[in-house]
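We modelled the chain as a single entity of 505 amino acids. Its sequence is:
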Amino acid sequence: MSIRYPTSRTPLAVAMTLAVCTLLGACAVGPDYVKPDTAAPLAYKENSGWKVAQPADTADRGKWWEVFGDAQLDALAEQVDISNQTVKAAAAQYEQARALVESARAAYFPTLGVNAAATRSGQGSRVTTGTAGEAANGTATGTSGVGNRVSLSLGASWEADIWGKVRRASEAQTSGAQASAADLAAARLSAQGQLAQSYFTLRQVDAQIQLFADTVAAYQKSLQLTKNRYAGGVSAKADVVAADTQLKTAQAQAINLGVQRAQLEHAIALLVGQPASTFSIAPAPLAVLPPPPVPEAGLPSQLLERRPDVAAAERRVAAANAQIGVARAAYFPALSLSASAGYQGSALANLLSLPNRFWSIGPQLAATLFDGGARDAQSRQARAVYDQDVALYRQTVLTGFREVEDNLAALRILQQQAVVQDAALQAARESVKLTINQYKAGVVSYLNVVAAQATAFSTERDAVSLLGSRYVASVQLIQALGGGWHAVSLPDAEAVNAANDPARK
């Protein structure tokens, strides 16, 4: 049930209303926002005793992929901002959030409306005619009264934001817009990271294809060697069959790599917003050099300012906190001021004349006395949403710490593995040379050659895969550290509001 309290429509009452609104205008119910605390470790465990490169303060932190020095990757990454549809969707969502900010701020201002109407109406009337006896017997004639009505009016209404409902709603939408801006940055970073990972995986496959080509060429020489030895009566037919089987197996495996390469190429096409049917990347093996060092991880506490997903989660907590104030404001009466003025008459010709003028102005106070617990339920819901967003924020922070630790550990361990893998590769290559020489001398059978070549080939493939994994882990660590993004890039409340002001665009 809603009850409205009429007040005197005098200039004195209006003045008193405005004075009360001014005095109470600074009041805003609901809790003021305090950033939730999170437990951040003093240092990364996996960063102990293993230090990566210092960050370059003069470098463009937005284009983090340029650290790899690959012109093809640079060109593809530039297309993400232009053509990636997921990034475009996030940008559109940010524009929606900014529009909601403007909608919330509109409640600060009065609502004006104009009304013009013209009506023609008729009403039947009973007019008694004839003698008194006829009238007594109900004898009468009916006539009809027809008239015109023309009106032109201007109305205005404004609700005083005494309890801060509008301010809290605007605060919530502003924080939501900031969260959407962080979501946009996170979507851009995710797309760029996926692109870089897919690109280096593609180059890893190219390196494996090149390895297979070299291996097939070596196997063909081995097959020819066994054929020559068989023709000279030195080797058995089984050696020729074994060499031919080894060659055909390698050729089949090389063909199978085409499936993986095609899928990676199609994935990159999707990330840069191009049809897979018309997109292609020329083969180029992954560079044999290890990946360049990435920026230093820094302190775990700095991660809270460097990841856009953490910033988005924190801004949603701020928005939920403001919504508690909006829910609390519903408990208090609403004070509004309305005014109207215009002209109304029976003819349009003399409508705008002093006798046809009318006006009214006055405050109105409305309060809800009973709602069956609806406001209490809305308040509890707002607090529950806040608690949920706090938990999600802390979970996002913990996930960020885990991802940094994961990739620090991956890079450290993969670097150690690369040292051992390189030594194993050199030994496997030497073993193949020695075994072939022994086979030519008739010391060992061809099965020893097959075993040595299989071991060497497997070691070569492991080395290529390890190098690709190190590149991917480098990309993932840069992503986990925010890709050079910082919370200072987030638009503040003034910037969000200015972006919605047409006069400032």
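As a brief sanity check on the tokenised model: Residues 425 and 459 are 6 Å apart (CA to CA). The radius of gyration is 39 Å.
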